[in-house]
Amino acid sequence: MHSTIRHKTTASQAPVTGLDPSSQQNAGIHVETIRDTATLSRIETEWRKLCERAPGHGFFQTFSWIWPWWKYLGEPSGYELRIVTVRMDGRLVLIWPLVVRRQGLWRVGVWLGSGTGQYGDLVIEEGAEQNNWCEAAWYAIKTDCGIDILHLERIREDAVVRHFLTGKKGKLKETATSPYIPVEKYQDWDAFHTQLKRSFRRNLRSAHRRLRVQGKLQHRFIDDPLEIEQIVTKSIRLKLSWLMKRNTYGRLLERPEAENWLVNTTIAAQEEGTLKLAVLSLDDTVIATQIGFLHHQHYYSYFGSFDIGYSSFKPGKVETENALQWAFENGVETFDLMPPADEYKLDWSQHKANIATFVSYPSNWGRLGKFWYSSGLRDKAVRIYWRFPRKFRRLIVRLLAI
User: Fold this and answer.
1) How confident is the prediction for the chain on average, in pLDDT?
2) Which residues contact 244 (CB under 8 A, 6 or more apart)?
3) Distance between CA 384 and CA 402 in Å, rounded?
4) By the 8 A CB rule, do 320 and 290 touch?
5) Which of 210, 281, 356, 381 is deepest in the core (most CB within 10 A)?
6) Which of 73, 82, 83 is nearest to 118 (CA)?
7) Using CA atoms, how far apart are residues 254 and 153, in angstroms rounded to an integer?
8) Four-residue CA torsion sign, 165, 166, 167, 169
9) What structural domains and CATH numbers belong to the chain?
10) Read out DSSP for 236-290?
11) How distant, in Å, are the alpha carbons of 110, 149, 168, 257 from that of 32?
């Protein structure tokens, strides 16, 4: 199944192959590559205003998401900004948010926000000149950003950038799927709930009943900044405990700066009005949490956790049900469970959006690295990596600074 298209914005169909600086000048287009924090900070207001004029972007392209990532994760980790901006007669019309980091012998360009499970896309104003703006940005990416390998992951099938990249030199490959619930297509919560598998509904009822026997069960949303910090910190610790039990290394969450990043991201989202931080409590004990973001009536179920001491009571599923029912009652159009398409997500829906990765080699040096990226060696190395015990995987990551 294909996804509900989040927005109808698409690039112009005109077959333009590229806009060099002289062509840009003749068209009234000005391109700039942002490389420093001060300049990024200065365009915050323009970035936010462009988002208001660009219905095709998602939450992960908002300033509230990218700024905490850069401040707490990107810059401290040695990434370099390469945010390509396009102006038309002085007005900001496109932002292509990239960063660069050296990996081995190559300088690899990735989405700003990389490594967090986000979707990747650009921000672009609607208009007949969209394709020309994209071409101008693409020319800068190839010639001005110092990128050997461009590796853009998690491109959702309805992303604005996906149509544009389809015609570019490189490899656009579907690599995952993202389960979602098209809330707007159901008459109401009851209509959705009754089409779930009978055994699944029975298990949910049993979980609710057994939890209520244990004490007072309460679901609520958090909006106080101090409590947000406490719950986000709790969520990370619950998730780490779950990962430890599964002998899995949480590469992002085990970084010391991860907590500051996620706390500040959620607070920024709360100030913007997009945060939906839900808590399931049993008496005074938090047993499950869900960090979600609501943007343009698209709900992103970003980060869920539960107390493994209550795992037999299925608190994570109970909390997801509570969040879903809230979505149906509050005009949400799409409830996005996000990749990967794990079995527990597919219990809720068989609707899946295709997710792609795009890889290109802008420099001659990058083209020499194509063998590593395209021959399957990277995939084989990843499979070997996961065979090691958890403590050795952590050591490998630290030694290679990945």
Assistant:
1) 89
2) none
3) 16
4) yes
5) 356
6) 73
7) 22
8) positive
9) 21-178+354-368 (3.40.630.30), 183-350 (3.40.630.30)
10) HHHHHHHHHHTT---TTTTSTTHHHHHHHHHHHHHHHT-EEEEEEEETTEEEEEE
11) 18, 20, 21, 30
* Distance spanning both ends of the chain, measured CA to CA: 34
The two structure tokens encoding residue 154: 């998690």
Q: What contacts 100, CB < 8 A, 6 or more positions away?
A: 79, 80, 82, 107, 108, 109, 110, 145, 146, 147
User: What's the order of all strands across the beta sheet hosting 80-81?
Assistant: 80-81, 98-103, 106-111, 149-156, 352-360, 171-181, 334-336, 298-306, 285-295, 275-282, 217-222
User: Which CA distances in Å does 134 have to 65, 71, 391?
Assistant: 22, 27, 44
**How high is the pLDDT of residue 18?**
56
Which helix (H) or strand (E) segment holds residue 25: the answer is helix 21-26
Rounded CA separation 360/147 (Å): 10
What local confidence, expressed as pLDDT, does residue 24 receive?
Answer: 62
241, 60 contact by CB (below 8 A): no
Q: What is the pLDDT of residue 167?
A: 87
Residues of the chain under the 70 pLDDT cut: 1-27, 249, 372-383, 385-402
Q: Could you tell me whether strands 29-34 and 123-124 are parallel, antiparallel, or unpaired per DSSP bridges?
A: unpaired
Written as one string, the DSSP assignment of 152-172 is: EEEEETT-HHHHHHHTSSSEE
pTM of the model: 0.88
Residue keyed to tokens 């996961």: 386
Q: What is the pLDDT of residue 382?
A: 63
Is-contact 365 174, C-beta < 8 A? no
